[in-house]
Amino acid sequence: MTEVNEVNAEATNAVSKTDYRSKSYIALKEARESLYWIELLHRNNYIDDKQYQSIYADCEELVKLLVHRCKKIDEQLKEKKK
To answer: What is the extent of the structural domain holding 14?
Structure first.
């Protein structure tokens, strides 16, 4: 759960809901990039299969959480405009 708290730290300091949205999408982009780097580390034998599966699964879960949060923020902003 520490990862989510660290990700939220920047977003919770947002000035506005749109700033919060922007920071959340940046966190999502960085999490997706992390998946790439984790794969690269595994392909080049810097981490073994067990480490890869564990770290990759954790990162995938973080991406799912961030996708959900970004969608929810988008929905809230759409509702606010109505």
So the answer is: 2-81
Q: What is the pTM of this model?
A: 0.77
Whether 42 and 52 have beta carbons less than 8 Å apart is answered as: yes
State how far Cα 81 lies from the chain centre. 26
* Number of domains the chain is built from: 1
pLDDT in tens for each of the 82 residues of the chain? 454 555 566 556 668 888 999 999 999 999 999 999 999 999 999 999 999 999 999 999 999 999 999 999 999 988 888 7
* CATH number of the domain encompassing residue 59: 1.20.1440.60
Long-range CB contact pairs, 22-25, < 8 A, 24+: 24/66, 24/69, 24/70, 24/73, 25/70
Beta strand segments in 10-74, E:
none
